[in-house]
Amino acid sequence: MDRTQYTNLTQAWGFVENHALSRQTPAMAQIRAATEKAGMPQGSAAQAEVLSMLAHLTGAKSVIVVGTGSVMETLELVRGLDGTGQLTAVDSSAKGITVIRKAFDVVQDSTATKLRAVNAQAGVFLPRLNAGDYDMIVVAGDAVNYAASFEQAPRLLRAHGVIVFTDVLAFYDGMNSGGVLDPADRSEKATAMRELLDTVESDERFRTVLTPTGTGLLVASKL
Hints:
Layout: H1 3-22, H2 26-37, H3 45-58, E1 62-67, H4 71-80, E2 86-91, H5 94-107, E3 114-119, H6 122-125, E4 134-139, H7 144-156, E5 157-165, H8 171-174, H9 188-201, E6 206-211, E7 217-222
Parallel strand pairs: 1-2, 1-4, 2-3, 4-5
Antiparallel strand pairs: 5-7, 6-7
Helix pairs in contact: 1-3, 3-4, 7-9
């Protein structure tokens, strides 16, 4: 591609992101604003919409979200469950789980999906869950969440279940340093994401695809 095409791609990303933001309901927009005001910046709105669509397309009924104040992704996944099944949000930060619980209070009356918020480290909580009970796992937030969640994914997911990693390009934490794209960026998140890509893509138990959606989505489907 030439420079013009790369410029067009950059402009397209901005257009899609703004379009996704404009499609948010007033309640969702209010939750996003309140969460960011509380000091927890939220990820890409377009990325959150893709997660919702993935939940819908796969017919997921049991979803785990591992994050750090990842409110908008969690709420979009609730929408993708179409009023069925259950969603468990796992957040190790006291601040993050408090905000998620408040968000659940807002949406609970409008959905029949069972919502549960757990304040725990992924590496501690996930091993306690029943094997083969889950259709979808979404991982976001702190670098430590990613490897711990993938370690449990083969056991927790049903056949053809999906695990999705957000911010795989490490732009969310490493925007100023270049993230995974910049070999000089040795930040915790960028380093962890490089290792994650190698680990997940070389695992013969999964079929994977990396997309530039949001700040990078890595989707792995259990074979």
